[in-house]
């Protein structure tokens, strides 16, 4: 009885402490969303009166936000395209070929994820400054791709590993060429992974701060750098509104990834069961 | 079914195919290798060269000497201290949270994991801004303390180390929770049951069986958040004062404000070396952990 009561007390304490830690993670985000509708964007929380002013002032005349937003969107789109091209080819090489120095390639791919981003940013600055490419969206996108492409490679390697190679072999045995296999078998099965890789590349580039700060110029500033500047130099209350929009965007993107994964999860099974019904399975084998 | 399909596949001319598969591999690996060599390896090597070069082009260790004296040295110590504090808090909070989640029913564990993962994908700048609103003199935290009649409130929670550590810990915490959750899920519950069947109490099981099993994971999770904090400055710059300047911030100032590229490069190389040392330790701990697991299994 004593033991039971002690276990119960322990469990209640653990749950309470864990809830506080979860609040610790969620609270800053909740506060931003609530404050973005607050009459007084800086001082008091919780707010006393509500307004949409900060959202409308985002797009007022002389606002710096539209330019920053469109630059970040452009850069993120470019970076996503680069990352996908690099990711798809690299993942194919790593999973569907006999690649010499495979572990060296892996180490190279992991490098940008392990090395402090500020060091990568400094190196890229030293590369682009002499070429007077600072402030160029292309340079920023090329820089972001250094961080985004390894993530795309890792997601796509996992995706291709998850695809049963017997399906590709089966198609080959029935006379399908390599292009047909890629188009009709591998691509449809890899599509959810490719969409996930694209979304994560986009988020990585869109949120990237260090490289952007080094490669920005006075009149080309990405959204994170603009947020940083308005939190340090010119206090602009509409920063709450843009932050709340970023939160909404991130949640939407993650929901999209989850949806795509969920939609794609049944595909391979259904293909394999088609083989079963087609009578490829040995008689008396697994239940059909 | 596996056997059937393999048997049905046509016999392949092995050698010919192998060489073709090698050629395809090299061709397809080219984009990533070339890209990262030009835009990642080369820039870092040029940083290294720059840190060793005098303004007239001769070799020198002057920039390192400068990086390791005076204000710059204290920035290095601040970086190590804030990173260590952050790692400690993320490890403790991460351990408690991951442990609690690993005991929850799947549905609630899923909800809790969502609260851990979603913030991780929201810009650290935005989350830091949330903390600035929360920790201000009239912020929610100080208000709650005042309402609870806690003496001394409002406390100064911003622009000092307390604020910085709160902020950076909340940024690093998702990493440690995810890592530790993976480690805890990997613990064989039968070992705990076996210890219990031999009469061990709950504390003994935790201390003698559970903790040794998760210890390598704990060590590498702590080291990882330490390494990640080393190169981080968004939160310290926004929530700290001049006393909380970190190496990454110093690098930024040296390039942007003082045009001091060589000094920045030397700071960058020091940061890189610290990171490598940390990663080496992680590698050592994981290989030690793996060999221990093998021994306990045999």
From TrEMBL, chain A:
Membrane disposition: Multi-pass membrane protein
Gene3D superfamilies per UniProt: MetI-like
Keywords carried by this UniProt record: Cell inner membrane, Cell membrane, Membrane, Transmembrane, Transmembrane helix, Transport
Domain of life assignment: Bacteria
Alphabetical list of InterPro entries matching this protein: MetI-like, MetI-like_sf
Pfam families given in the database record: BPD_transp_1
Subcellular location, principal: membrane
GO biological process, one term: transmembrane transport
Subcellular location, record wording: Cell inner membrane; Cell membrane
Residue stretches spanning the membrane: 67-93, 105-128, 140-160, 181-203, 241-263
One annotated Gene Ontology cellular component of this protein: plasma membrane
Domain ABC transmembrane type-1: 69-258
Family membership noted in the UniProt record: Belongs to the binding-protein-dependent transport system permease family.
PANTHER family the UniProt entry points to: INNER MEMBRANE ABC TRANSPORTER PERMEASE PROTEIN YDCV
Protein's name according to its UniProt entry: ABC transporter permease
From TrEMBL, chain B:
One GO BP annotation of this record: transmembrane transport
A Pfam family reported for this protein in Swiss-Prot or TrEMBL: BPD_transp_1
Topology of the protein relative to the lipid bilayer: Multi-pass membrane protein
InterPro entries according to UniProt: MetI-like (IPR000515), MetI-like_sf (IPR035906)
Domain of life: Bacteria
SUPFAM superfamilies from the UniProt entry: MetI-like
Compartment(s): Cell membrane
PANTHER family: ABC TRANSPORTER PERMEASE PROTEIN (PTHR42929:SF5), INNER MEMBRANE ABC TRANSPORTER PERMEASE PROTEIN YDCU-RELATED-RELATED (PTHR42929)
Protein name: ABC transporter permease
Organism lineage: Bacteria, Bacillati, Actinomycetota, Actinomycetes, Kitasatosporales
